[in-house]
Amino acid sequence: xxxxxxxxxxxxxxxxxxxxxxxxxxxxxxxxxxxxxxxxxxxxxxxxxxxxxxxxxxxxxxxxxxxxxxxxxxxxxxxxxxxxxxxxxxxxxxxxxxxxxxxxxxxxxxxxxxxxxxxxxxxxxxxxxxxxxxxxxxxxxx
Length: 142
Ligand code: RB5
Known about the structure:
The chain is an alpha/beta fold and about 140 residues long. The protein has helices at about 10-25, 40-55, 70-75, 90-95, 115-125, 130-140; strands at about 1-5, 30, 60-65, 85, 105. Helix 4 (about 90-95) links the parallel strand 4 (about 85) and strand 5 (about 105). The protein is globular. The structure holds D-ribose. D-ribose (RB5) binds near residues 66 and 70.
């Protein structure tokens, strides 16, 4: 599975932790930046990662900013993207099972690396349940 990753400076360190963990676990990662703690604007990173997922050039996307909120808002502007901001494992599971989230957003100033890796593992290992949820997810796009 190929995963595109992106962050701003507020999510940079968490992105690096998650990237290392995923590479160790056999995932192919495309990291589109940012590549340092220098201040950058998050919308560009969220949008570019989302465009890669929407174009099916990656299977899923994982993005980080300080809260996970700003970068997710930018990602969700791209057609076909369902990006969930998550800071607990229950929501991680449900965002896949019921919402078929194709992107995950985490806050580097909200969750520690230990919890973040559990969230990521839960999110990646949970399948969409389909059924009645398929109908609801299709209504999101209009
Ligand atoms: C950057 O200071 C911060 O605003 C950003 O990382 C993010 O939290 C925005 O939602």
